[in-house]
Amino acid sequence: MSSTSYTKLEPVEIDSVKIPCSYCHTLVLGSGCASLSTAVRLKRAGLEDLCIVTDNIFGGTSRNTGSDKQTYYKLSDSTRDPDTPYRMAEALTAGGAMHGDIALIEAIGSENGFYNLVGMGVPFPYNPWGGFTGYKTDHDPLQRGVSLGPYTSKLMTEYLERECRTLGIDIMDHHDVVKLIRLDDRAAGALIMNKREMDTDSRGLRLILCDNLVFGLGGPGGFYEKTVYPKPQNGGIGLALEIGATAANLTESQYGLTSQKFRWNLSGSYHQVLPRYYSIDGETGETFDFLNDYFPDMASLMNAVFLKGYQWPFDPRKIPDYGSSLLDVLVYRETEILGRKVYMDFRENPKGNDHIGRFDPALLGREAAEYWRNSGIDGTTPIERLRQLNPAAIQLYLDHNIDLAAEPLEMAVSAQHNNGGLAADIWWESVNIRRLFPVGEANGTHGAARPGGTALNSGQVGAFRAAQKIALAYRDKTLDTEKARDSGRRAASEILGILQQLTAGTPVPDCDREYKTGFQQRMSRYAAAVRSAQTAKEAKAAAEKQQKDYTELRVDPMRLSIALKLRHMVFAHRMYLEAIADYIQQGGGSRASSLVIAAEGQEGTPVHPLLPDWRIVPENLKLRGRIQHIRWNPDTKKPEFDWIDTRPIPTEDSWFETVWARYLDGSVFK
Questions:
Q1: Packing angle of the helix pair 533-548, 511-526 (nearest 10 deg)
Q2: CATH code for the part of the protein at 255-415
Q3: Are 397 and 428 within 8 A, CB to CB?
Q4: Which is it for strands 145-147 and 71-73: parallel, antiparallel or unpaired?
Q5: Per its Swiss-Prot or TrEMBL entry, what cofactor is needed (predicted)?
Q6: Which among 359, 506, 594, 649 could disulfide-bond with 100, CB atoms 3.0 to 4.6 Å apart, if both were Cys?
């Protein structure tokens, strides 16, 4: 780091091990869109004492993920349909379990966040009059979505990184965060590890103290076996949970059908060209066109597959009457229950059989037929139709050495986004740890269900809000660095002890991989799209045991960084399971992107006549107005829960002179 971004302090010494120690005013963790945007905003506000820490500047979800048409969601300002921040806030809160004031902030701030990106050169397409024409996304009535194609967040990240470097913001790459530092009720820094210096006496550890900690370590990508999160994205929420940060809505994630060899959402065009679904038994090699058994005719099967392109996220409300989300249930059953591999094949049309009939374009429903006609689709096979509709969708897979014209795609129901995260206030500051600012997916603002593209907007709005409070209300240095060093020393001592334990004796080959696979399979099987009270209870107990088993790991010294990640990941996955079990116990049913299966003797609508034991527990509508908070109690070694009422969308009118006065005296931040 340059001399402008930190102050050296006396090293922290533990049993003759000297760990470098320094101070910077604001420490930003993570290098996704939200973290980088926060840093840019702070530097533009004149804050020089600033540093970004990341384990891989080219890793993370923002830079390595996308979809058929990855969406940025903002207030509509270039169509004839009138839009207001209040209408947008209503759309954001419609799914429930979201605070109205935060929804209004995300609506009002959407234009600021979007045009800040445009000002940096992010090339969002516009019409001849300069309007950024939008389109409708999931769960939204107006044309608020805009896109750069499949790589919207990737381009955003690249431009934000470029701006950080132009502004001279220090970026410490190849550093893992291994422990957060808390001093009383405030955040005070982080213990980090240089992965290129793990063989030194200090094990590559370094203590950075700070007045403000921006926490942007992304979503729980490494928690699941079936996931569309990029491989470099593990998630670091456990680091904040273990110091007692309150989390909100950990139960709420978004799931959908994705490819596995190359992780990508199979939305939009991939389904609208009607590929064939089939599964293969791993032991016998037998092939099953399994959809044929669950649809009454080929027309309803074709309609469900086509609509899955529009309705990509799994939604229990779209299961009945042969809806598109029945596909997710059937794919889940094939993979998780029957142990088969499922494929999407663009070389063949859906096969059908004598019972439901054979594929015939004449059977297309009105919506699908009109879409094909308007798009000029008349190919005889799915790959021909995909070339006509969206050749870039084929090229995307070619860029990753997958030829859709020569091989099928293995697919599964995968975790895609955590709508929950750390609980924060209207300035994106933790509700119970001052000066801790969760941004991006680490902040649980989204509620149970969200319109497509809101995550990118929320990250940019949250970055601006956090930067505003830090730059205007928390600009002065207030940290007692000596007390913070003592807290840092205790954290470093704990981590050094864990490192010693991990390397004591002979390393066990692949034990860390097997350990990770254990909680990943548990999350994909019991804490993803399909859940039940019984399996949640059993999985929670297994998670608690696996957390205790961490002390038995013995790894090669060069895998210590990975093993330290497992420490906070296994703890966090337990907290997610605790949250799910509590939600179901409180009467929470199927909602958003998760299906809760009824227990024996419990009433519920069958998912399908051929699956009589799979009965849908209906959504508890009362919980739409409630948010689950969970917090770890270090004394009892158990989580604590609070259920709070959602705050409504503000309706009071503001008087300019009053707003101006509150802004000038700083009371707007209180």
A1: 160
A2: 3.90.700
A3: no
A4: antiparallel
A5: FAD
A6: 649
